[in-house]
Amino acid sequence: MARKVGVWVIGACGSVSTCMIAGVEAIKAGLVSRSGLVTDLAELAALPLAGLEDLVFAGYDIRSTDLLAAAREVHGFTGLLPDGMIERIRPALAEISSRISYGCSVNCGEAIARYKSDGLQEEETPVARIVEKIQADLRGFRDRHGLADVILVNLASTEPYLSAPEQWRELRDFRGLIANDRREQLCPSAIYAFAALDAGFPYVNFTPSAGSSIPALAQLAEERRVPHYGKDGKTGETLVKTTLAPMFLARNLRILSWTGHNILGNRDGEVLDNPANREAKIRDKDETLRQLVRGQDVFSQVRIDYVPSLGDWKTAWDFIHFQGFLDAKMIMQFLWQGCDSALAAPLVIDLVRMTEYAHRNGEAGALRHLACFFKSPFQVADHDFRNQFDMLVRYAEERTRAEAAATAVAATAMPRP
Q1: E strands in 176-325
Q2: Do 218 and 322 fall into the same domain?
Q3: 81 within 8 A of 75, measured Cβ to Cβ
Q4: Residues 31 and 130 in one domain
Q5: I want to staple 259 with a disulfide (CB 3.0 to 4.6 A). Which of 94, 213, 227, 301 is the partner?
Q6: Mean pLDDT, the chain, integer
């Protein structure tokens, strides 16, 4: 019997979510290949993960729109979803759109607030009531569709950087912020994470926003025995950086400076054009390099600029100045241009499948074996992409052996005819 899995998406009509949902529906319709799915690699193929046909989508957005309009918008940005494809999956997009409602925007900052629909009225609603509504929505979704589990996935725009209040350290204090409606010390990603984990639903944060990557919510996940992970999906320039930097170290080539200039359009770029929102993203990118170079004194600079005409085609130019034998100073440069949403969408599907599998097997807390998917992986200090990927492969091998052993035990316990 199929095990249906719910995927509740925050930012459900954004570019990444739209590419993910449209991509799954297009794969199911036989219109595109499964290229880009890490969980389709031979190293992970033996794991009994949920099938794409078993995923049921719903979610929140703060804009007044639907997936059909969002798909056309994405096509305008990327050229990835032509009219013929959209027409073939139109019924599925319409059905999923009926399950998308207004989300939370408490203390989301002015760059995100400008997109809020007039229908989103929550200024007078206490945060505790917002949490209750999120939990009721998740439970109702699960029960109406007979779902075995629901994974809450954050794909919303990057929130303004919020210096962690002291009350984020202990769970009882974080609960106090919610109970006392201290919304100035809260943010949507952490509210969503609290609501999901407290109700027993796994949470995945693909954004640079705080989400569950704070001590109080890590405590909650352990207390409720629920898996979670994040933050900030690693899709482009940083993916290359975490692959290249270890190469320089392995050759004992001293990195003198590494500067990166990122330009992008669409809504993500527009939100990141605000300095408060951009800071969280830049912090993750810069900290990744700092961790990789192991204390070397490296001049590091990261820029992110909004270029509307680029749409979803994110372009990064990196300049690496390094020193070798005889103190010779040399240069390496690379240019990365990729469709940001098309790079991110399959990774979100992978994370949903891996997180559901972990929950099904009784795993709880931070899923550190998923570090290779993130720029700022929670509770993992090693940013070397190869080492992170090896963690994922070792996990798959261990789980595969455990699955085989359990099957063998079950077979010997069966009564003989």
Answers
A1: 203-205, 227-230, 254-264, 299-306, 313-323
A2: no
A3: yes
A4: yes
A5: 301
A6: 93
Q: Do the beta carbons of residue 212 and residue 203 sit within 8 Å?
A: yes
Q: Are residues 138 and 277 in the same domain?
A: no
Same structural domain for residues 187 and 253? no
Give yes or no for a contact between 100 and 8, defined as CB atoms under 8 angstroms apart. Answer: no
Q: What is the pLDDT of residue 77?
A: 84
Number of domains, the chain: 2
Amino acid (1-letter code) at residue 145: H
First vs last Cα of the chain: how many Å apart? 25
Q: Is 415 a member of any domain?
A: no
Contact 204, 151 (CB under 8 A): yes
Confidence of residue 60 (pLDDT cuts 50, 70, 90): very high
Give the Cα separation of 226 and 214 in Å (integer).
Answer: 15
- Model confidence over 114-126: pLDDT tens digits? 888 876 667 778 9
3-state secondary structure of 159: coil
CB 294 within 8 A of CB 59: no
Provide the CB-side half-sphere exposure for 99 (13 A, CA). 21
For residue 187, give the amino acid letter: C
Q: Are residues 227 and 241 in the same domain?
A: no
**Identity of the amino acid at 171:** L
- Write out the H or E segment, with its range, that includes residue 10: strand 5-10
CATH code (residue 250): 3.30.360.10
164 burial level (CB within 10 Å; 0-12, 13-18, 19+): middle
Q: Which pTM was predicted?
A: 0.94
Same domain, 86 and 139: yes
Contact 64, 58 (CB under 8 A): no
In this prediction, residues 135-160 reach a mean pLDDT of 97
- What digits encode the pLDDT tens for the residues 280-293? 778 777 788 888 88
Mutual angle of helices 188-198 and 171-179, in 10-degree steps: 110
